[in-house]
Design a protein that fits this description.
- This is Slp family lipoprotein.
- InterPro entries: OMP_Slp.
- Pfam families: Slp (PF03843).
- Keywords: Lipoprotein, Signal.
- The chain is an alpha+beta fold and 171 residues long.
- It has a domain of 114 residues: Beta Barrel (OB fold (Dihydrolipoamide Acetyltransferase, E2P)).
- Helix content is 19%, strand content 35%.
- It has three helices and five strands.
- The chain is globular and about 45 Å long.
- About 8% of the residues have low confidence.
Length: 171
């Protein structure tokens, strides 16, 4: 059978394969309210007055945890989220923000570099420093948060590859 004869078959199977792979993707973990902001933390940091106290669903990589007498703060390097609201760490950072939790959080549960998604409400901003540079951190009062496990990050990403040719994979 020549390759030219395979094209009609591939054209019919393509949509089925796409739907099958899309069905593997997990659903978002948080339901976005009708007014949920689509702005990234870097955009909010540049003009915080424009965004008020809107709802956000942001995620990224944990940088640090600080506990205070009545609340805890987790500094996060933001990344865009996929359709399941998992941070995409292989993309460019989208700014930084501080997730504010009522009470005490155990820093062990938020290890440096862990990927996290938070849902909450913007609650102002704070001037700070990133190394020697001045920075404005949007503050998010956290309603819900989720630290992603390695298994959850792999879920919905089938190890299926299509192609013509020879390949060698080493893991």
């Amino acid at each position: 059978m020549s390759i030219r004869h395979l094209f009609p078959l591939l054209r019919r199977l393509g949509p089925v394969a796409a739907l099958t792979l899309a069905a593997c993707a997990p659903a978002p973990i948080y339901k976005a309210a009708p007014g949920t902001l689509a702005a990234l933390p870097a955009q909010v940091a540049q003009s915080p007055e424009q965004y008020g106290q809107g709802d956000v669903i942001w995620g990224g990589s944990v940088i640090s945890v600080h506990n205070f007498p009545d609340h805890s703060e987790v500094e996060i390097l933001a990344y865009p989220l996929d359709t399941s609201q998992r941070p995409l760490p292989n993309t460019h950072g989208a700014g930084r923000f501080i997730a504010v939790y009522p009470g005490y959080v155990e820093s062990f549960n938020f290890p440096g570099g862990a990927l996290i998604t938070v849902s909450g409400k913007l609650n102002g901003n704070r001037a700070g420093m990133v190394d020697q540079a001045a920075y404005v951190y949007p503050l998010v009062s956290v309603a819900q948060s989720h630290v992603w496990t390695a298994a959850e990050l792999r879920q919905g990403h089938p190890d299926v590859h299509f192609g013509i040719g020879v390949g060698v994979g080493i893991r």
